[in-house]
Amino acid sequence: MTAIWRSTLTLVGATTLTFGMAHAQSPDLSDPPAIDGEVVADHGSHTLRMGIGLSESSPQFLSSQYFGEILEQRTDGRITVNVFPNSQLGDDVQMMEMLQTGTLDMTYPSSSATTGYVEELSAFDLPFLLPNREAAMAVMQSDVAQEMLDDFEGTGLKALTFSENGYRQLSNSARPVETPEDVAGLDVRGLSVRTMQNPVHLAIWEALGANPTPMAFGELFSALEQGVVDGQENPWSTILTSNFNEVQDYGTETRHVYTPFIMMLSERTWDRMAPEYQELVMEAARQSAEYEIQLSAEYDDWSRKQLEERGMQITRLNDEQLAAFQEATQPVYDEWAPRIGEDIIAEIQQIVEDSSN
Ligand code: TK8
């Protein structure tokens, strides 16, 4: 079953990629792990509607499909998940509100969009906090991060698990960017950069001399196409699978923030489920998150190379250039660390240090 599903999806994925991007194939992605485990007892049926922001070729979509496969197989079809991609049901903020009112069962926002509910998650938005994927994994799996997921209790949102949106990169349609001065513009205006609806991201791009504009992800492609904003920042795989390269000529490998995704269920839906189904949902969420992180890692470098092959001029910063971005954004730490909690930041920095040993 899984093999058939996977080959179908690969075809769908490749078709979507091929349709949207004439000559690209999706990377040689790993198949999802075989689904094992007994069929759980019958506790009734649930058809879960899940809205996500990214496209059918994204790791976010492919892993959400796998999540649904696990539940369907382990409940003998009593739980099914219908995944609606491409922000078609709304953006991250809107879909979380739909979970709170019970008009949607699941969504998968970037942690940055959720800091209005759990401010400590802004730690992940601090620039250059997480130097590599190993550190990011260690932090997401840490008690301090898991406690942030627990802190959603009572908001109407049941946060299940972290996975990887990834390292954010700058793209723009105005000029190559190698330094913060290129962002600010010396004899020209600063770049207008779309950011997520998150105050730390606004602060980062203000510190770099840009004109940041918070905007829902679903509106971003047309805003770039119409020149409403010059640029945006997202992982290479999102830039590729959302076709931003069609309206962005320049990329800069800033890796300024590592963003997690958070898989969420409406508390109303969660509360209607029997304990055995709740356990299974948590297990399926963890398994699909592991798979999503694997796919995201497989997509990362491949996406950058694909973007270059399609004509995007990508600047890879040397150590000195990277240091200039880190120095320019240091004031964001100074402003936000006390608000997030110096103790939390210190704990995370210790986890980062330990992860390199
Ligand atoms: C997709 C968003 C997106 C995020 C953004 O729903 O808004 O730029 O990086 O991936 O969560």
Description:
Helix 2 runs antiparallel to helix 11, helix 4 (133-140) packs across helix 13 (342-355) and helix 7 packs across helix 12. Helix 2 (59-74) links the parallel strand 1 and strand 2 (79-84). The chain folds into two domains: 5-164 and 260-304, 3-Layer(aba) Sandwich (D-Maltodextrin-Binding Protein, domain 2); 169-257 and 306-355, Bacterial extracellular solute-binding protein, family 7 (D-Maltodextrin-Binding Protein, domain 2, 3-Layer(aba) Sandwich), CATH 3.40.190.170. It has 357 residues and is of the alpha/beta class. It has 13 helices and eleven strands. The structure holds D-xylonic acid (TK8).
Task: List key phrases describing it.
single chain, 357 residues, alpha/beta, D-Maltodextrin-Binding Protein, domain 2, 5-stranded mixed beta sheet, 13 helices, 11 strands, 16% strand, binds D-xylonic acid
Distance between the termini: 42 Å
Q: What do we call the CATH topology of the largest domain?
A: D-Maltodextrin-Binding Protein, domain 2
- Counted beta strands: 11
Strand coverage percent: 15-25%
Q: Please tell me the total number of domains.
A: 2
Number of helical elements? 13
Low-confidence stretches: 1-23
Main sheet makeup: 5 strands, mixed
**In what order do the strands lie side by side in the largest sheet?**
2-1-3-10-4
Question: Percent of residues in helical segments?
Answer: 40-55%
Bound ligands? D-xylonic acid
Q: H/E series, N to C? A: HEHEHEHHEEHEHEHEHEEHHEHH
Please state the overall shape, judged from the principal axes of the Cα atoms.
Answer: globular
Please, what is the oligomeric state?
single chain
Signal peptide: 1-24
Organism: Vreelandella salicampi
Protein name: TRAP transporter substrate-binding protein
InterPro entries: DctP_fam, TRAP_DctP, TRAP_DctP_sf
